[in-house]
Fold:
Amino acid sequence: MAFSDFVLNNELPIRLGFFFGVFGVMALWEVVAPRRALQTSKGVRWLNNLGLVFLNSLVLRLLFPAAAVGMALFASGQGWGLFNYIEAPLWVAVLASVVVLDFFIWLQHVMVHAVPALWRLHRVHHADLDFDVTTGARFHTLEIVLSMLIKFAVILLLGPPLVAVVLFEVVLNATAMFNHSNVRLPQTLDRYLRLIVVTPDMHRVHHSVEDDETNSNFGFNLPWWDRLFGTYRAQPRGGHEAMTIGIRTFRADKWCSWLPGMLAIPFVGKVQGYAINRREWQQGDEQ
Ligand SMILES: [Zn+2]
Ligand SMILES: [Zn+2]
Structure:
């Protein structure tokens, strides 16, 4: 199929084009119409958050040179996975694969909030005191590696077409940058847009210091899983401008803004608060 061949033959330029294109547009938009004032200077944020992104790309490349597409190629060679087993039109297999992969990313995101040891890794994403386009790719290296292993497992079970893997990664990368951006969208546009994609206002709720708000809106791309499974929350209680972003117990720049501290966060202190076995209940919560 022509489209599929085009994507696979131009994988690198497509990936880089979308990354730099979307990053550039969102970064510019943040200057023109910012949603909130930043706590930390943009220079420090870009240097350290993008430094982590660079480090992660390097580690992934060294550990898994063939990446997710290589795993999809391997699955198809072995005849493993659903879509290498059943005959489905390519467009059905591509659409279904993108949706299923997105569901597993959502499920993984719920899991890293629920399991205390994994929350230690995921804290690095949440410890950011601000919320902007560079937050979108700010994940601890170990979480990125874990993420890739989970994606490999899903690919082995699903047997997606190669083009679906590339499209999924490109789209997820683009939507993650979009919905972490510190941008102001007209309210009506946001209301309609969040029916099909996670918007910045929707995902910002997830970056609140309030436990119940953090434990909602786990989607990075499709907004439906949160609505379907009961974790959707429309707006933050404090309002988007006044709400506090980050983790209550990590407020110092040393941990939140500088790369060495960010890399050390998983190994610091006790896991606080809201992880799966330490939920707090208040009187009056009973149904
Ligand atoms: Zn999270
Ligand atoms: Zn996020």
Q: What stands out?
A: The mean pLDDT is 92. Residues 109, 113, 122, 125-126, 206 surround zinc ion (ligand 1) (CB under 6 Å).
